Amino acid sequence: MNNFIKANNLVNENSLIKKFNISVSSTEIISKKDLSLDFFEKSLIIEKLLEAHQLAEINFQSGNITKRGFASNVCTMDNLWALGTNFNNTRNEISSVCGERSAILAAYNSSLINYMQTKSRSKFNFKIKYICMAQATDIDKIEKAIVPCEDCLAWFNTSRYFDDNTIIFSFERNDCKLCLKALFLDELLPFRGKLTSNKFCEDKKIVYSALAKKIADEKNINNSIILKLVKSTYESYLKNNMSIFSNQNISCSILANGKTYISNKIDWTKRWFCEPLLNCLECALKENSLSTDIIAVCYFGDEYSGDDFNDGVVSIKSLGRIRQKYATNNTLLILNFDNFIQVITIGEYLPFKFIQGYKI
Ligand SMILES: [Zn+2]
Question: Which CATH architecture describes the domain 205-349?
Protein backbone atom coordinates (compact mmCIF):
# COMPACT_ATOMS: atom_id res chain seq x y z
CA MET A 1 0.00 0.00 0.00
CA ASN A 2 2.79 2.33 0.98
CA ASN A 3 4.60 1.62 -2.29
CA PHE A 4 1.41 2.22 -4.24
CA ILE A 5 1.05 5.68 -2.71
CA LYS A 6 4.69 6.46 -3.44
CA ALA A 7 4.31 5.20 -7.01
CA ASN A 8 1.32 7.47 -7.57
CA ASN A 9 3.41 10.33 -6.29
CA LEU A 10 6.22 9.42 -8.63
CA VAL A 11 4.21 9.19 -11.84
CA ASN A 12 2.77 12.67 -11.46
CA GLU A 13 2.21 15.62 -13.80
CA ASN A 14 5.83 16.71 -13.54
CA SER A 15 7.39 13.29 -13.92
CA LEU A 16 9.50 12.40 -16.91
CA ILE A 17 7.52 9.16 -17.23
CA LYS A 18 4.51 11.34 -17.99
CA LYS A 19 6.48 13.67 -20.28
CA PHE A 20 7.84 10.77 -22.35
CA ASN A 21 4.47 9.03 -22.25
CA ILE A 22 5.80 5.74 -20.90
CA SER A 23 3.52 3.13 -19.40
CA VAL A 24 5.37 1.65 -16.44
CA SER A 25 3.15 -1.41 -16.09
CA SER A 26 3.49 -2.40 -19.75
CA THR A 27 7.27 -1.84 -19.85
CA GLU A 28 8.70 -5.33 -20.01
CA ILE A 29 11.79 -6.13 -17.92
CA ILE A 30 14.44 -8.11 -19.81
CA SER A 31 16.62 -10.03 -17.38
CA LYS A 32 18.28 -13.46 -17.50
CA LYS A 33 18.16 -13.65 -13.72
CA ASP A 34 15.17 -13.49 -11.40
CA LEU A 35 14.40 -9.88 -10.79
CA SER A 36 11.27 -8.73 -9.05
CA LEU A 37 10.72 -5.00 -8.94
CA ASP A 38 7.58 -3.62 -7.40
CA PHE A 39 5.73 -0.89 -9.28
CA PHE A 40 7.40 1.88 -7.30
CA GLU A 41 10.94 0.57 -7.83
CA LYS A 42 10.31 0.02 -11.54
CA SER A 43 8.86 3.54 -11.90
CA LEU A 44 11.81 4.99 -10.04
CA ILE A 45 14.35 3.23 -12.28
CA ILE A 46 12.55 4.36 -15.46
CA GLU A 47 12.33 7.93 -14.12
CA LYS A 48 16.06 7.89 -13.27
CA LEU A 49 16.92 6.52 -16.73
CA LEU A 50 14.94 9.34 -18.34
CA GLU A 51 16.63 11.90 -16.12
CA ALA A 52 20.04 10.51 -17.17
CA HIS A 53 18.91 10.59 -20.82
CA GLN A 54 18.10 14.31 -20.49
CA LEU A 55 21.49 15.04 -18.95
CA ALA A 56 23.20 13.08 -21.75
CA GLU A 57 21.27 15.17 -24.29
CA ILE A 58 22.31 18.45 -22.66
CA ASN A 59 25.91 17.27 -22.50
CA PHE A 60 25.79 16.56 -26.23
CA GLN A 61 24.07 19.87 -27.04
CA SER A 62 26.51 21.83 -24.88
CA GLY A 63 29.28 20.88 -27.30
CA ASN A 64 30.94 17.97 -25.53
CA ILE A 65 34.28 17.54 -27.27
CA THR A 66 33.68 13.86 -28.15
CA LYS A 67 30.26 14.70 -29.65
CA ARG A 68 28.82 11.82 -27.64
CA GLY A 69 26.40 12.13 -24.76
CA PHE A 70 26.04 9.50 -22.06
CA ALA A 71 24.88 9.77 -18.47
CA SER A 72 24.12 7.49 -15.58
CA ASN A 73 22.05 7.70 -12.46
CA VAL A 74 23.44 5.46 -9.74
CA CYS A 75 21.81 4.31 -6.51
CA THR A 76 23.70 3.22 -3.41
CA MET A 77 22.59 0.48 -1.01
CA ASP A 78 21.45 3.36 1.25
CA ASN A 79 19.15 4.53 -1.59
CA LEU A 80 21.11 7.68 -2.31
CA TRP A 81 20.87 8.61 -5.99
CA ALA A 82 23.48 10.57 -7.93
CA LEU A 83 23.68 11.66 -11.54
CA GLY A 84 26.75 12.06 -13.73
CA THR A 85 27.62 12.45 -17.38
CA ASN A 86 30.65 11.74 -19.57
CA PHE A 87 33.38 14.25 -18.86
CA ASN A 88 35.89 14.83 -21.63
CA ASN A 89 38.65 17.41 -21.49
CA THR A 90 40.12 15.79 -24.57
CA ARG A 91 39.02 13.04 -26.94
CA ASN A 92 41.45 10.55 -25.44
CA GLU A 93 41.40 8.55 -22.23
CA ILE A 94 43.87 10.73 -20.33
CA SER A 95 41.25 13.21 -19.18
CA SER A 96 37.98 11.42 -19.85
CA VAL A 97 35.54 9.85 -17.42
CA CYS A 98 32.47 7.94 -18.63
CA GLY A 99 28.96 8.75 -17.38
CA GLU A 100 28.88 5.66 -15.13
CA ARG A 101 32.09 6.51 -13.31
CA SER A 102 31.16 10.18 -13.17
CA ALA A 103 27.86 9.28 -11.43
CA ILE A 104 29.63 6.88 -9.07
CA LEU A 105 32.04 9.65 -8.07
CA ALA A 106 29.11 12.01 -7.50
CA ALA A 107 27.44 9.38 -5.28
CA TYR A 108 30.66 8.69 -3.42
CA ASN A 109 31.25 12.35 -2.67
CA SER A 110 27.65 12.93 -1.54
CA SER A 111 27.75 9.82 0.67
CA LEU A 112 31.02 10.83 2.24
CA ILE A 113 29.84 14.41 2.85
CA ASN A 114 26.70 12.99 4.53
CA TYR A 115 28.92 10.68 6.58
CA MET A 116 31.15 13.59 7.59
CA GLN A 117 28.11 15.46 8.87
CA THR A 118 26.83 12.47 10.86
CA LYS A 119 27.49 12.84 14.57
CA SER A 120 27.64 9.20 15.66
CA ARG A 121 29.57 7.48 12.90
CA SER A 122 29.77 3.75 12.37
CA LYS A 123 31.84 2.24 9.52
CA PHE A 124 31.50 4.09 6.19
CA ASN A 125 29.71 1.65 3.95
CA PHE A 126 29.46 2.57 0.29
CA LYS A 127 28.06 0.02 -2.17
CA ILE A 128 26.46 0.62 -5.54
CA LYS A 129 23.07 -1.08 -5.98
CA TYR A 130 21.95 0.21 -9.40
CA ILE A 131 23.66 1.85 -12.37
CA CYS A 132 21.05 3.30 -14.76
CA MET A 133 22.83 3.99 -18.06
CA ALA A 134 21.39 6.34 -20.68
CA GLN A 135 22.51 8.03 -23.85
CA ALA A 136 21.63 11.15 -25.83
CA THR A 137 19.81 9.14 -28.55
CA ASP A 138 16.07 9.94 -28.77
CA ILE A 139 14.08 7.53 -26.63
CA ASP A 140 11.96 6.45 -29.64
CA LYS A 141 15.12 5.64 -31.63
CA ILE A 142 16.74 3.41 -28.99
CA GLU A 143 17.46 -0.12 -30.24
CA LYS A 144 20.11 -2.17 -28.39
CA ALA A 145 20.88 -1.55 -24.74
CA ILE A 146 24.18 0.21 -24.12
CA VAL A 147 26.81 -1.61 -22.10
CA PRO A 148 29.68 -0.19 -20.04
CA CYS A 149 33.08 0.19 -21.70
CA GLU A 150 35.96 -1.95 -20.52
CA ASP A 151 37.45 0.95 -18.52
CA CYS A 152 34.23 1.11 -16.50
CA LEU A 153 34.14 -2.70 -16.25
CA ALA A 154 37.65 -2.56 -14.76
CA TRP A 155 36.15 -0.45 -11.95
CA PHE A 156 33.18 -2.80 -11.56
CA ASN A 157 35.51 -5.80 -11.38
CA THR A 158 36.70 -4.59 -7.98
CA SER A 159 34.76 -5.61 -4.90
CA ARG A 160 34.99 -2.75 -2.46
CA TYR A 161 32.11 -0.70 -3.87
CA PHE A 162 30.44 -3.25 -6.17
CA ASP A 163 29.27 -6.83 -5.86
CA ASP A 164 27.56 -9.44 -8.00
CA ASN A 165 24.18 -7.99 -7.03
CA THR A 166 24.92 -4.60 -8.56
CA ILE A 167 22.47 -4.21 -11.47
CA ILE A 168 23.01 -2.22 -14.67
CA PHE A 169 19.76 -0.91 -16.15
CA SER A 170 19.26 0.61 -19.59
CA PHE A 171 16.54 0.90 -22.21
CA GLU A 172 16.32 -1.60 -25.07
CA ARG A 173 13.74 -2.06 -27.83
CA ASN A 174 12.19 -5.48 -28.24
CA ASP A 175 9.39 -6.13 -30.77
CA CYS A 176 9.11 -2.35 -31.29
CA LYS A 177 8.44 -1.85 -27.58
CA LEU A 178 10.64 0.05 -25.17
CA CYS A 179 11.87 -2.38 -22.48
CA LEU A 180 13.92 -2.16 -19.34
CA LYS A 181 17.06 -4.26 -19.68
CA ALA A 182 18.71 -5.47 -16.47
CA LEU A 183 22.18 -6.97 -16.33
CA PHE A 184 23.72 -8.20 -13.11
CA LEU A 185 27.42 -7.52 -12.71
CA ASP A 186 28.35 -11.20 -12.85
CA GLU A 187 26.72 -11.43 -16.30
CA LEU A 188 29.05 -8.69 -17.55
CA LEU A 189 32.01 -10.12 -15.63
CA PRO A 190 31.53 -13.90 -15.21
CA PHE A 191 35.07 -14.38 -13.88
CA ARG A 192 34.69 -11.62 -11.32
CA GLY A 193 36.23 -12.67 -8.00
CA LYS A 194 37.84 -15.84 -9.40
CA LEU A 195 41.40 -15.39 -8.22
CA THR A 196 44.25 -16.95 -10.19
CA SER A 197 47.31 -18.51 -8.58
CA ASN A 198 50.97 -17.46 -8.68
CA LYS A 199 52.15 -21.08 -8.31
CA PHE A 200 53.03 -23.22 -11.30
CA CYS A 201 53.70 -26.93 -11.77
CA GLU A 202 54.13 -28.83 -15.02
CA ASP A 203 51.49 -31.49 -14.37
CA LYS A 204 48.55 -29.12 -14.02
CA LYS A 205 45.42 -30.21 -15.81
CA ILE A 206 44.38 -27.99 -18.71
CA VAL A 207 40.66 -27.27 -18.83
CA TYR A 208 39.13 -25.77 -21.98
CA SER A 209 35.72 -24.25 -22.43
CA ALA A 210 33.88 -25.94 -25.33
CA LEU A 211 34.39 -22.86 -27.52
CA ALA A 212 38.07 -22.50 -26.57
CA LYS A 213 38.64 -26.19 -27.42
CA LYS A 214 37.05 -25.72 -30.85
CA ILE A 215 39.16 -22.63 -31.58
CA ALA A 216 42.35 -24.23 -30.20
CA ASP A 217 41.81 -27.25 -32.50
CA GLU A 218 41.25 -25.00 -35.51
CA LYS A 219 44.44 -23.05 -34.78
CA ASN A 220 46.47 -26.19 -33.91
CA ILE A 221 47.00 -25.08 -30.33
CA ASN A 222 47.49 -28.17 -28.19
CA ASN A 223 48.15 -28.82 -24.46
CA SER A 224 51.88 -28.73 -24.94
CA ILE A 225 51.75 -25.24 -26.54
CA ILE A 226 49.48 -23.98 -23.76
CA LEU A 227 51.72 -25.43 -21.04
CA LYS A 228 54.85 -24.01 -22.68
CA LEU A 229 53.22 -20.57 -22.81
CA VAL A 230 52.21 -20.67 -19.13
CA LYS A 231 55.68 -21.91 -18.17
CA SER A 232 57.45 -19.15 -20.13
CA THR A 233 55.15 -16.54 -18.57
CA TYR A 234 55.86 -17.99 -15.13
CA GLU A 235 59.62 -17.85 -15.76
CA SER A 236 59.32 -14.24 -16.88
CA TYR A 237 57.32 -13.52 -13.70
CA LEU A 238 60.13 -15.04 -11.59
CA LYS A 239 62.76 -12.88 -13.28
CA ASN A 240 60.77 -9.63 -13.20
CA ASN A 241 62.19 -7.18 -10.68
CA MET A 242 60.35 -4.15 -12.04
CA SER A 243 57.11 -4.63 -10.04
CA ILE A 244 58.56 -3.93 -6.62
CA PHE A 245 56.78 -0.63 -5.89
CA SER A 246 53.24 -1.97 -6.12
CA ASN A 247 54.22 -5.35 -4.64
CA GLN A 248 52.11 -6.94 -7.37
CA ASN A 249 54.17 -8.78 -9.94
CA ILE A 250 52.45 -9.75 -13.19
CA SER A 251 53.70 -11.18 -16.48
CA CYS A 252 51.88 -11.75 -19.71
CA SER A 253 52.55 -13.50 -22.99
CA ILE A 254 50.82 -13.53 -26.33
CA LEU A 255 50.90 -15.87 -29.29
CA ALA A 256 50.77 -13.75 -32.41
CA ASN A 257 51.83 -14.31 -36.02
CA GLY A 258 53.44 -17.64 -35.12
CA LYS A 259 55.63 -16.26 -32.35
CA THR A 260 55.54 -15.84 -28.57
CA TYR A 261 55.97 -12.38 -27.08
CA ILE A 262 56.44 -12.06 -23.31
CA SER A 263 56.56 -9.01 -21.13
CA ASN A 264 56.19 -7.90 -17.52
CA LYS A 265 54.43 -5.29 -15.49
CA ILE A 266 56.72 -2.32 -14.98
CA ASP A 267 55.98 -0.09 -12.01
CA TRP A 268 56.66 3.61 -11.95
CA THR A 269 55.11 4.12 -8.54
CA LYS A 270 52.65 2.16 -6.42
CA ARG A 271 49.84 3.54 -8.58
CA TRP A 272 51.40 3.99 -12.05
CA PHE A 273 52.63 1.10 -14.17
CA CYS A 274 53.01 -0.18 -17.73
CA GLU A 275 50.57 -3.04 -18.20
CA PRO A 276 52.20 -6.31 -19.35
CA LEU A 277 49.71 -7.23 -22.09
CA LEU A 278 50.23 -3.88 -23.82
CA ASN A 279 54.00 -4.24 -23.34
CA CYS A 280 53.83 -7.61 -25.16
CA LEU A 281 51.68 -6.18 -27.89
CA GLU A 282 54.15 -3.39 -28.50
CA CYS A 283 56.86 -6.02 -29.20
CA ALA A 284 54.53 -7.84 -31.60
CA LEU A 285 53.52 -4.60 -33.36
CA LYS A 286 57.14 -3.65 -33.96
CA GLU A 287 57.55 -6.84 -35.98
CA ASN A 288 54.15 -7.30 -37.58
CA SER A 289 52.67 -3.83 -37.68
CA LEU A 290 48.96 -3.70 -38.56
CA SER A 291 48.91 -7.39 -39.53
CA THR A 292 49.46 -8.39 -35.88
CA ASP A 293 47.00 -11.17 -35.10
CA ILE A 294 46.76 -12.34 -31.48
CA ILE A 295 45.74 -16.00 -31.14
CA ALA A 296 46.22 -16.37 -27.37
CA VAL A 297 46.89 -14.31 -24.26
CA CYS A 298 48.33 -15.79 -21.07
CA TYR A 299 48.40 -13.96 -17.73
CA PHE A 300 50.40 -15.02 -14.67
CA GLY A 301 50.93 -13.12 -11.45
CA ASP A 302 49.91 -11.95 -8.01
CA GLU A 303 46.29 -11.24 -7.24
CA TYR A 304 46.39 -8.47 -4.70
CA SER A 305 43.82 -9.36 -2.08
CA GLY A 306 44.98 -7.62 1.07
CA ASP A 307 41.65 -6.16 2.19
CA ASP A 308 38.09 -6.68 1.03
CA PHE A 309 39.05 -5.96 -2.56
CA ASN A 310 41.59 -7.13 -5.11
CA ASP A 311 43.39 -5.42 -7.96
CA GLY A 312 43.26 -8.38 -10.33
CA VAL A 313 45.90 -9.97 -12.55
CA VAL A 314 43.99 -9.71 -15.82
CA SER A 315 43.65 -6.18 -17.16
CA ILE A 316 40.09 -5.73 -18.37
CA LYS A 317 41.08 -2.35 -19.79
CA SER A 318 43.83 -3.93 -21.92
CA LEU A 319 41.59 -6.79 -23.10
CA GLY A 320 39.08 -4.11 -24.13
CA ARG A 321 41.75 -2.31 -26.11
CA ILE A 322 43.17 -5.36 -27.93
CA ARG A 323 39.64 -6.58 -28.74
CA GLN A 324 39.12 -3.35 -30.71
CA LYS A 325 42.23 -4.19 -32.80
CA TYR A 326 44.66 -7.15 -33.16
CA ALA A 327 42.50 -9.61 -31.13
CA THR A 328 38.88 -10.75 -31.27
CA ASN A 329 36.27 -12.38 -29.06
CA ASN A 330 37.76 -15.70 -30.20
CA THR A 331 41.27 -14.97 -28.97
CA LEU A 332 42.17 -17.57 -26.33
CA LEU A 333 42.73 -16.43 -22.76
CA ILE A 334 44.86 -18.67 -20.53
CA LEU A 335 44.60 -18.35 -16.75
CA ASN A 336 46.60 -20.20 -14.10
CA PHE A 337 44.30 -21.31 -11.28
CA ASP A 338 45.30 -23.27 -8.16
CA ASN A 339 44.72 -26.79 -9.46
CA PHE A 340 44.26 -26.33 -13.19
CA ILE A 341 44.97 -24.09 -16.15
CA GLN A 342 41.84 -22.58 -17.64
CA VAL A 343 41.59 -21.87 -21.35
CA ILE A 344 38.64 -19.70 -22.39
CA THR A 345 38.11 -16.93 -24.93
CA ILE A 346 38.17 -13.16 -24.46
CA GLY A 347 34.48 -13.19 -25.47
CA GLU A 348 33.72 -15.59 -22.62
CA TYR A 349 35.71 -13.51 -20.15
CA LEU A 350 34.03 -10.27 -21.26
CA PRO A 351 30.72 -11.22 -22.96
CA PHE A 352 29.68 -7.63 -23.72
CA LYS A 353 31.87 -5.63 -26.06
CA PHE A 354 31.63 -1.85 -25.91
CA ILE A 355 30.83 -0.51 -29.36
CA GLN A 356 32.64 2.70 -30.22
CA GLY A 357 30.25 5.25 -31.72
CA TYR A 358 32.66 6.14 -34.49
CA LYS A 359 34.77 4.36 -37.06
CA ILE A 360 38.02 3.07 -35.53
ZN1 LIG B 1 33.00 3.59 -19.59
Answer: 3-Layer(aba) Sandwich (3.40)
